[in-house]
């Protein structure tokens, strides 16, 4: 078993964090994930405060993932998910991806859902969502699909992830 995904057991803990823009979606997702039997660790925001700052919630959220990366994933939520993902990706070992809705490739090809690719190819361990772009139902469907998709464990993907992991600034 390596550092990356598929040999790991089902996710044991989902850590969730959001700023004011993602507060209501976070509350909804937390309830739905608990209903499915997941253990959810909420790192805030714990109330709607338009003046809060996303790094204050994203940093403690991703630090929880790093404590037990094979059994923990995180969902981070903001207005667009972009700043949240940038914050998360500052931490070595975090592979955060943004999802703001399904798209159709310009060349018309049929491709797997990008949520699936983020897990199968990139072993993403943090999913950033944009609350201003997704309905509750769209977000829940994406989260569920993301959590249920394993890493492919293909050697080419493991090789690329090792290269990514070894990057330093």
Automatic annotation (TrEMBL):
Binding site for D-ribulose 5-phosphate: 19-20, 79-83, 122, 132, 156, 160
Cited InterPro entries: RpiB_LacA_LacB (IPR003500), RpiB_LacA_LacB_sf (IPR036569)
GO BP, one annotated term: carbohydrate metabolic process
Entry keyword set: Isomerase
SUPFAM superfamilies reported in the protein's UniProt record: Ribose/Galactose isomerase RpiB/AlsB
Record-level Gene Ontology MF annotations: intramolecular oxidoreductase activity, interconverting aldoses and ketoses
Pfam families reported for this sequence: LacAB_rpiB
Family (UniProt): Belongs to the LacAB/RpiB family.
Protein name: Ribose-5-phosphate isomerase
Organism of provenance: Candidatus Zambryskibacteria bacterium CG10_big_fil_rev_8_21_14_0_10_42_12
